Please model this.
Amino acid sequence: MAESLDLMERGLEQARLVAIVRLVDHTNAVEIATILCDAGVQFLEFTVERPEGFRSLERAVAAVGHRATIGAGTVLSTADVVRVSEIGARFIVSPNTNPAVIDATLERGLLSLPGALTPSEVVVATSAGARFVKLFPGGIGGVEYLRALRAPFPYVKFVPTGGVTIENASSWLDAGAVSVAMGSNLVHASGEVNGLLERARQAVAATALRGS
Model:
């Protein structure tokens, strides 16, 4: 289990991109997941703040779980961690720092990405065992805030979320982020798939390692 988690962590650092799928209309969930995989996206996060999100997560795991690493976002309780684990998703993302959720995630061999903004929240998250921290909402402080945080926390693997776009993704990575997460500017909440393949390809290219 630990080896699998280590491989997933290295995979996220190499992929450098998480596509957030936060839908209001879930009709095209599987098609969206397939398009993202076709574009080369390796990490997909389906948010579960709506009941339909769990069903879309389950469908995505079944459809493309062999092609990409599928996780759940907006996970707020240990009960949801259990449900996500049973579905077969492999990482847990939260907008907040909850040690109980982090602990439940790690107990199940899943990758934990708790949300944190302040230095105190970063310490709580890492003290609970998280090796990655979702910097959220990243757009509030921007790239310079990430640089400031990395001074006292050079060992923390930050994944900025909120305000990350195809155009500015490389700036976040140059500032020290190990990966970035793109949401509504990449995958529209309406579930509209027109233009998604091209946007996803651009996102993959914008976050690719130099020379790769």
The first strand starts at residue 17 and ends at 21. Residues 2-207 form a domain with the TIM Barrel fold (CATH 3.20.20.70). The chain has a mean pLDDT of 96. The longest helix spans residues 2-15.
